[in-house]
Backbone:
């Protein structure tokens, strides 16, 4: 590989190389090339970051000299001087990986300040207050990032200074107070490190660059990458951007802000964002002060507002994507500090995709691929049931920051939120503001509510990216961390009490407010229709009830790939009958009960087939072992023991006997699926008859019903043929009885390893295959599907033995290869054999990508994931096409 430079100035960078320069570096160099106003600077590459780690956390020798040569270049461009007591050059040192990881790595501002340059800056700006304020900010940030000093230590000093001067805001501190704060801050760092605070800017810069590289392997960044599946082929190390400092806190003709070129919340074509007068960038991002709406800048600083809107327009057109822009206005001069693809809510992504196609900014393929399919889940979130709202008390209202409704118990502490979430408790995290280190608690919470901050605050951005409901800037809310409670409008909520948040409106309610199913918007329908016509894979639903079938159809499912009939037996009005069937003393008695169950199944099938009229409905015969329907033996024994003197326990004892008889050491590999059909043929006969009877009923009413019968757990052609005999008998009986031809396909699941390996035999009888990837994964790994995710799997992922759970995303090299064998063998016998997949993987975008490339006919997913599957299937087609070119 050609030796790459370690450092690129913004003018010379090849801005296509995102992996090398990181997203921020690319944005800065692109903006520079577009002749937009960007403070001069340079990027140290991600390759250097990797070399730093390969060298045992040491920078390669050539890096600092190259950095210093680039500092000289900046000096020439700006006329400022490094370490000067007259006109000092100060820089920011910013992280930036190929993929944006907002707030997950470190940044240092105002670097270059020391006791000399601070005087120079004061002279130059004629604003000593601003200068000393910058200096104290620099020491705090440097101390925190480079030396690991905690914020609280600095905050204590600042609070004491405010108290001493009898003021409440930082901005009211005068120069003398700030000077004392600076001295104290330095002492804090010196006590922590037992060395003098570095005053030489060269040393400061080297330490800062190293600290940014270190933050790539910081806990926050690692967790973020893990949770967001950011692997090394997506982002390999962070770059470091060194940028000339410009100041938004140089008085009331200065400002700083963040904007999206379109509304990131609802996708409307309007600049959305906020700014603060006389402030530094982190004040906006951290949500410490709630910013002004960007529209107000038009009045406050009309010239800068015009420059901002021009830049937004130019950047959107150039990148053909909605941008998230950071800007600073220094004494009336406008600067762009960053541009990147905006992280928007799923709704905004959908709307902007449709609108940008209309504006000829992007084509339909791009419109589909720019939406992370997984994120659409947020659009499919439940919303608050407006009919029920009346009965609930509205407690407070904040800024709607990430859509969707969520209920849970209020928790004010990050660690407790993580713990409770991991114990499956539904939690709403309530904080004054959030920081990057709080992100693990976001994952375990249903929703986030903060009392401070605006739409660009950390809490808002992270929640939106995760698709979690979030409300920010809920200023009614007074949070009392010490007493684990909050108060708003005279109402107190204690930790552990239920609340509901509506991230779409900003409203907070007391109690668990009922929610309703989501509505598919017109834009979403447009996107889905584009995806439907693009995708090659079929998308069907895993649905066991008429309601689920209707919902799936509304979301775009074209058929049912898996109807688990046992779920119907679990309904409260049937379970008793089903237990009676299991308890039957003999076949005759069992058949009597099965007759009644057959009637119930028939009516279920009629409704489901009707809801999916015109599309195939795959009905799977009974799969779980029979003992799953009986109470467990321990409970029965307990009951017998506790009631030994008071009740007639004959019946309970009988059930216990039967439960013991049916119990197995390893039920997942036991008497289930086709094995039940073989040993209790009357059960499968009843189910097959019910399917045929339901079809007859519908055909008579001219309903286009398309049922197919699917046999689970088949491992050999002999098993399948055995059941096919029953199927044939029933078919001919029914056809004779009703004097009509009834077409019901007969097929099998491929979920036993042997079935995949002998698929050429099985295809002789089966009219279709459907991979049961849940059981197949279990068998291929010898991992119990019921246990591993709660046991050792998280550790496997943490230790990088597995990238993700194979129960969520298909293990392409293992399970995937086995599937390929099954597909090849099956299609060698029947060229056009329909082969689907109905395990949980059917709704996972990565697995869908694999299914597309492996030649699967359709995926089947739960109703809520249907739109995700449709988009992911379209993306698989588009991405494969673009790879071929
Ligand atoms: C499977 O095993 O993938 C499957 C769909 O069946 P179940 O989850 O019901 O065992
Ligand atoms: Mg299965």
Residues:
């Amino acid at each position: 590989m050609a030796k790459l430079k370690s450092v690129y100035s913004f003018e010379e960078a090849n801005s296509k190389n995102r992996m090398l320069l990181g997203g921020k570096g690319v944005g800065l160099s692109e903006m520079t090339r577009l002749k937009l106003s960007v403070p001069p600077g340079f990027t140290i590459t991600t390759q250097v970051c990797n070399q730093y780690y390969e060298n045992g956390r040491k920078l390669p020798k050539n890096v600092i000299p190259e950095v210093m040569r680039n500092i000289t270049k900046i000096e020439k461009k700006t006329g400022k001087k490094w370490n000067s007591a007259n006109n000092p050059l100060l820089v920011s040192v910013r992280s930036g990986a190929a993929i944006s990881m907002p707030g997950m790595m470190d940044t240092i501002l105002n670097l270059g300040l020391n006791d000399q340059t601070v005087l120079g800056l004061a002279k130059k700006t004629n604003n000593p207050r601003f200068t000393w304020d910058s200096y104290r900010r620099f020491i705090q940030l440097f101390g925190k990032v480079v030396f690991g000093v905690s914020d609280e230590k600095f905050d204590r000093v600042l609070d004491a200074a405010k108290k001493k001067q009898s003021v409440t805001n930082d901005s009211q501190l005068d120069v003398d107070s700030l000077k004392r704060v600076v001295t104290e801050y330095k002492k804090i760092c010196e006590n922590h490190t037992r060395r003098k605070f570095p005053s030489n800017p060269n040393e400061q810069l080297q330490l800062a660059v190293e600290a940014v590289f270190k933050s790539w392997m910081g806990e926050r960044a690692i967790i973020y990458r893990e949770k967001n599946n950011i692997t090394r082929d997506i982002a390999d190390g962070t770059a470091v951007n060194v940028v000339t400092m410009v100041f938004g806190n140089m008085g009331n003709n200065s400002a700083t802000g963040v904007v999206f070129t379109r509304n990131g919340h609802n996708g409307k074509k309007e600049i959305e964002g906020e700014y603060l007068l006389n402030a530094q960038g982190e004040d906006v991002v951290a949500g410490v002060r709630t910013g002004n709406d960007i529209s107000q800048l038009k009045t406050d600083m009309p010239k800068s507002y015009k420059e901002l809107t021009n830049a937004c327009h130019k950047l959107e057109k150039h990148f053909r994507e909605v941008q998230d822009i950071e800007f600073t206005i220094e004494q009336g001069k406008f600067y762009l500090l960053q541009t990147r693809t905006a992280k928007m809510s799923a709704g905004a992504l959908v709307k902007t995709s449709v609108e940008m196609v209309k504006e000829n900014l992007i084509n339909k393929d791009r419109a589909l691929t720019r939406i992370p399919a997984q994120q659409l889940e947020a659009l499919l979130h439940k919303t608050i049931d407006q009919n029920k709202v009346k009965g609930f008390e509205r407690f407070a209202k904040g800024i709607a920051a990430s859509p969707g409704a969520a209920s849970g118990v209020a928790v004010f502490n990050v660690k407790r939120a993580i713990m409770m979430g991991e114990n499956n408790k539904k939690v709403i995290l309530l904080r004054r503001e959030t920081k990057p280190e709080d992100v693990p608690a976001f994952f375990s919470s249903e929703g986030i509510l903060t009392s401070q901050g605006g739409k660009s605050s950390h809490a808002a951005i992270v929640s939106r990216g995760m698709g979690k409901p979030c409300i920010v800037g809920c200023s009614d809310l007074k949070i009392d961390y010490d007493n684990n409670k909050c108060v708003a409008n005279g109402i107190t909520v204690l930790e552990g009490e239920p609340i509901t948040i509506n991230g779409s409106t900003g409203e907070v309610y007391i109690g668990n407010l009922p929610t309703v199913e989501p509505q598919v918007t017109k834009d979403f329908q447009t996107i889905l229709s584009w995806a439907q016509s693009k995708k090659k894979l079929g998308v069907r639903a895993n649905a066991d009830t008429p309601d689920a079938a209707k919902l799936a159809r509304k979301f775009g499912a074209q058929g049912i790939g898996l109807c688990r009939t046992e779920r119907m037996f679990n309904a409260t009005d049937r379970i008793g009958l089903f237990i009676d069937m299991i308890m039957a003393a003999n076949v005759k008695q069992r058949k009597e009960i099965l007759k009644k169950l057959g009637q119930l199944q028939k009516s279920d099938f009629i409704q489901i087939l009707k809801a999916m009229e015109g599309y195939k409905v795959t009905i799977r015969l009974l799969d779980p072992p029979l003992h799953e329907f009986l109470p467990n033996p321990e409970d029965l024994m307990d009951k017998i023991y506790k009631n030994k003197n008071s009740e007639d326990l004959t019946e309970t004892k009988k059930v216990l006997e039967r439960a013991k008889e049916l119990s197995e050491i390893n039920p997942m590999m036991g008497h289930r699926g086709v094995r039940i059909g073989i040993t209790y043929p009357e059960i499968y006969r009843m189910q097959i008859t019910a399917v045929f009877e339901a079809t007859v009923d519908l055909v008579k009413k001219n309903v286009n019903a398309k049922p197919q019968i699917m046999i689970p757990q088949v491992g050999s052609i002999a098993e399948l043929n055995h059941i096919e005999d029953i199927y044939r008998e029933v078919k001919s009986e029914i056809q004779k009885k009703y004097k009509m031809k009834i077409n019901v396909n007969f097929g099998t699941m491929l979920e036993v390893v042997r079935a995949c390996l002998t698929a050429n035999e099985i295809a002789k009888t089966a009219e279709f295959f459907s991979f049961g990837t849940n059981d197949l994964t279990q068998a291929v790994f010898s991992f119990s599907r019921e246990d591993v995710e709660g046991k050792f799997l998280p550790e496997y992922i943490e230790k990088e033995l597995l990238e993700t759970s194979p129960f969520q995303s298909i293990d392409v090299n293992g399970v995937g290869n086995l599937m390929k064998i099954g597909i090849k063998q099956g299609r060698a016998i029947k060229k056009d054999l329909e082969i689907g997949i109905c395990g949980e993987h059917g709704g996972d975008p990565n697995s869908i990508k694999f299914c597309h490339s492996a030649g699967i006919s359709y995926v089947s997913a739960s109703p809520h994931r249907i739109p995700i599957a449709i988009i992911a299937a379209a993306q698989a087609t588009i991405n494969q096409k673009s790879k071929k070119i």
About this structure: The CA atoms of residues 500 and 513 lie 6 Å apart. The pocket of phosphoenolpyruvate (ligand 1) is lined by residues 562, 564, 623, 751, 772-775, 838-839 (CB under 6 Å). The chain has a mean pLDDT of 91. Residues 587-611 form the longest helix (25 residues).
